[in-house]
Design brief:
Shape: elongated
Number of strands: 0
Largest sheet: none
């Protein structure tokens, strides 16, 4: 189970490391809003996956 949590943290950090520089460089408010919504959706999906039962 700790491996799942570690992998989840790594996935979120990599997602942020990839998307934040793009939004920062372009300085588009709409893009930042879309990225924030996508980030929240990823966190919700991650939370549901971690709470789910393992097969």
């Amino acid at each position: 189970m700790p491996v799942k949590y570690f992998a989840a943290v790594v996935a979120i950090v990599l997602l942020l490391a990839f998307l934040v520089p793009i939004a920062w460089k372009l300085k588009e408010v709409e893009l930042a809003i879309v990225l924030a919504i996508g980030f929240v959706m990823a966190l919700v999906d991650l939370g549901q996956s971690l709470r789910g039962k393992e097969p």
